[in-house]
Design a protein that fits this description.
Blueprint (H helix, E strand, L loop, with lengths): L1 H9 L4 H12 L4 H14 L2 H14 L4 H13 L3 H14 L4 H9 L7 H10 L5 H13 L3 H14 L4 H13 L3 H14 L4 H13 L3 H14 L4 H13 L4 H17 L4 H13 L3 H14 L4 H13 L3 H8 L27 E5 L4 H7 L3 H6 L3 E6 L4 H4 L5 E6 L9 E4 L3 H4 L18 H8 L8 E6 L9 H10 L15 E5 L18 E2 L8 H8 L4 E5 L2 H9 L3 E5 L20 E5 L7 H17 L1
Length: about 625
């Protein structure tokens, strides 16, 4: 009769329960029947009834691992996870190789469960199925246990190599570990098995984007859109890729259209809201950008990119105090290396002679911009030590109030406190009207000045230094794409050759300096950069010039910090620090801004700079 009842149970027949009860009436202590009645009740959703039957089964025979596992399932369904985990652990004590109990415990482990060891044991079980491995892997992925998830996904595809979703999720795991090459391999394997899988195409686009393949990302996003035009994810992803690669107004417009398409399909799509906010930020529509970033944060309050992007919108609008607070989200975006957690962060408390390390965190220009705060921290009673990029070490060594300067690559004693340079405006409460704009605050060392006094420079006219390009970094896609927008060619400065009585001096470094071999007609450029070893040399050279004209790169900050006249040619989506719709800046009193009036168009900028040079030349 028991065999017949079990057969009916497996067939889903309700009569199985009646047969179990008939058997139980004849044999009230039949543990298997009590267990099966519990399983039947559990499957029917009668959870309290199931718990009762299963506890009766265990009272008859507490040595059966599968009784314990079933009780754990009932307790989990009743919302009592800690009790459920205890039953799974007891089941494994009775039967260490019991796959169902291992899988159940691994889905919601606690720190004391030693989940990684359990997972390794589970993956070695020959009786474990691919579906069980996938379920465990999914739970580990959701819990953020990426190494465990990857192990389980790999075990699943080893058992069943044609499991598409396992490869897709293995790719997602690798992406979260920032191993984008492995992620791309996993997605490509999924697509070999299922060429029309839109999610795999979209995820592959994200992976190859991180591998600096912008065209590939664009193509894969479009493939995903074509396969599933009613899903918002690929539109949002493609909008992000298009915006990041934007070089003109049409590119920005297409990016906005794609993000709006995603939002029509899902009005609270976090990525689409954030990406559309970025487009509006780039286009100077700060109110709309702020609204979109705040909508993103309503949908996902801890979204680090949205918090950081909102900070940029607020800073660009001149709302510095709120902007500085949100700017701290930069540490959670994954774009900056982590700070040594063993160092004590300064939060503005009295220093009373304590040593505080102020350290660079981003580019050379950012360091030159914010190192102005070092003397202010020294005035608060701290012994200030700077850690900067090696090329800046000699230049900042002479700053007043600075006790010592190290290169970031140097080994140096641990300080009492540390603070990233770009966190100082927040801690010191900088507002628009309290920006420390006293210049100069940097001075080249005496040996550099002496060296450059002996270098020949062209005379008989205004000496004008030129920088037309930033720092191309092909291995860093985001930085390189921004660099493409901020950079021009030497030929874009051709109108300057029409201005009389100018003597041009090259300040351009790196690959773009090769353009000196073919300058615009009539533009004779003296090139002394072969003798430049670091920023101290560049600073001493700048002191011998009348004016520097530069795109928005580190030289702009250097010249501003030296208190020399500098004209900055700013891309349309200009940096937040230059605010909006003004040609001056409170950060550098000697700086004048020439902004693009259309994205990607330097023609008008070149003409306006030439006109300003004509006026300056006539006034001399």
């Amino acid at each position: 009769m028991l065999a017949s009842a079990v057969a009916r149970h497996r067939a889903g027949e309700a009569a199985a329960g009646d047969l179990y009860r008939t058997i139980l009436s004849a044999e009230p202590s039949h543990g298997d029947v009590l267990h099966l009645l519990g399983v039947t009740a559990l499957q029917a959703g009668a959870l309290e009834v199931a718990e009762g039957w299963l506890r009766r089964a265990l009272a008859v025979d507490g040595t059966q691992a599968y009784y314990r596992n079933s009780l754990g399932e009932a307790l989990r369904a009743l919302g009592r996870p800690d009790e459920a985990r205890e039953q799974y652990r007891l089941a494994l004590t009775l039967s260490p190789a019991y796959p169902e109990a291992l899988a159940n415990l691994l889905r919601q482990p606690r720190p004391g469960d030693n989940a990684s060891t359990l997972l390794e044991r589970f993956c070695r079980l020959r009786s474990a199925t691919a579906n069980e491995l996938l379920a465990v892997a999914d739970s580990r992925l959701l819990a953020g246990r990426l190494a465990d998830a990857g192990l389980a996904y790999r075990a699943a595809v080893a058992l069943e190599p044609a499991t598409v979703q396992a490869y897709v999720n293995l790719g997602a795991t690798a992406s979260r570990e920032k191993d984008y090459a492995k992620a791309a391999i996993a997605y490509r394997r999924a697509l070999r098995l299922s060429p029309d899988h839109p999610g795999a195409w979209n995820n592959l686009a994200s992976a190859v984007w991180e591998l600096n393949d912008g065209p590939g990302a664009t193509g894969f996003c479009r493939r995903s859109v074509a396969l599933k035009p009613d899903h918002p994810d690929p539109y949002a992803n493609l909008g992000y890729v298009q915006r990041s690669q934007a070089q003109d107004g049409d590119d920005f417009a297409e990016a906005a259209t794609l993000c709006r398409r995603a939002l029509r399909l899902n009005p609270t799509h976090v990525s689409a809201l954030n990406n559309l906010g970025i487009v509006n930020l780039d286009l100077g529509r700060l109110d709309e950008a702020e609204r979109l970033f705040r909508r993103t944060l309503e949908a996902e309050p801890k979204h680090p990119d949205a918090r950081f992007n909102l900070s940029l919108a607020l800073l660009k609008a001149g709302r510095l105090r709120e902007g500085w607070e949100l700017y701290e989200a930069r540490w959670k975006t994954g774009q900056l290396p982590a700070v040594n957690a063993q160092l004590r962060a300064w939060q503005g408390e009295p220093l009373n002679g304590a040593t505080i390390l102020l350290h660079a965190e981003q580019g050379h220009g950012d360091t030159l911009h914010f190192v102005r705060y070092a003397p202010l921290v020294a005035a608060l009673g701290g012994r200030v030590v700077l850690a900067v990029q090696p090329a800046l070490k000699r230049l900042v060594a002479g700053m007043p109030g600075v006790a010592a300067v190290h290169a970031l690559t140097d080994a140096f004693p641990a300080p009492d406190f540390h603070c990233p340079l770009m966190s100082l405006p927040r801690l010191l409460g900088t507002e628009l009207d309290t920006i420390p704009g006293s210049i100069p605050y940097l001075y080249p060392p005496a040996e550099a000045i002496g060296k450059w006094l002996g270098q020949p420079l062209p005379g008989n006219g205004l000496r004008v230094g030129l920088v037309w390009s930033g720092d191309p970094r092909p291995g860093l896609l985001r930085a390189n794409l921004t660099d493409r927008r901020r950079s021009m060619t030497l030929r874009d400065l051709a109108p300057l050759a029409e201005v009389p009585n100018l003597r041009f001096v090259n300040l351009q470094m790196g690959g773009p300096a090769a353009q000196l071999a073919d300058p615009p007609a009539g533009m004779d450029i003296h090139d002394p950069m072969g003798a430049v070893a670091d920023f101290a040399d560049t600073a001493a050279l700048v002191l011998r010039l009348d004016l520097v004209i530069t795109v928005d790169t580190s030289v702009a900050h250097l010249v501003g910090a030296l208190g020399k006249p500098v004209w900055v040619l700013s891309r349309y989506d200009g940096c937040w620090r230059w605010l909006l719709d003004r040609d001056d800046t409170p950060w550098y009193p000697t700086m004048r801004l020439f902004r693009q009036t259309m994205p990607g168009d330097w023609t008008d900028v070149g003409r306006r700079v030439a006109d300003a040079l004509h006026a300056l030349s006539r006034s001399r």
